[in-house]
Each structure stands twice: as structure tokens, then as C-alpha cells.
# Entry
Amino acid sequence: MAIANLHETLLSYTLRKNYLNVEITNLQSRKTLAAYSQADSSSFKAQDEEELRRYFKALYDGDEEYKCKYTDYTQIPDFEEEMDKIAARYNDELADLTAWETALDAQITTDSAEIEEINAYMESIKSMLSSNIQGDFNYGLNG
# Structure
């Protein structure tokens, strides 16, 4: 009877360990998605900044008053303000993605620690199971 209980316990730990391994795989996939999202966000930011630069350059090149007043299109007052808006928008998005990635890392660490704990329990149960089987075998020989 004790052997059956140990087998059952061992199987339940194996099931939990397998579940955690699948969860870690899913979390790592989401972490990869977060990294790709960060790269996309950086790319979109660069694209928006380039469009803004082209717009202000065209504005500067097309207006003689701006050329007399400013030495470069980046000195137009609205330029810096618009660049700051773009930076703020993407910095908020990047902060959210970084927080998401940090949360995923924390969950992966927690699940990995639980797997290590389960491995220790499983080794202990295997040892008890081996001792019980050997004890039963010796009892049968001596009995």
C-alpha cells in the first residue's frame, strides 16, 4: 500500500513538473514577443522621427522667412516640441513593454524554482520507493 501511495505521489509531482515546463515555454515565447515588440516600437519611433524631420526640412526649405530667421530646420520652435511628443509616446510604450518582460522573467524564475523543489521531492520519493521495494523483497526472502 505504501508503495502505491509513493507511486501516486511521484506521478502527481511528474504531472506538476511537466505543467510547469510547458508554462515556462509559453512564458519564454511571450518574452520573445515582448522583445520583438520593443524592436518594433523603436523602429516605429525612428520612422516617426524621420517623417517629422522631412516635414520640417520641407517647411524650412520652402519658406524664405524661416531661412532668414533660423540656420537649420531643427531650430524651428515646434520641431523640438513635436520630437518630445514622439519620444514621450514611445518611452511610455517602452516602459510598459519592459514592465511586461520583467513580470515574465519573475514568473519564469518562480516556476524554475518550483521545478527544482519538485526535483528534490521526486528524488526523495524515489529513494523511499527503492527502500520500500528492497525492504519488501528482503522480507519475502526472510519470511
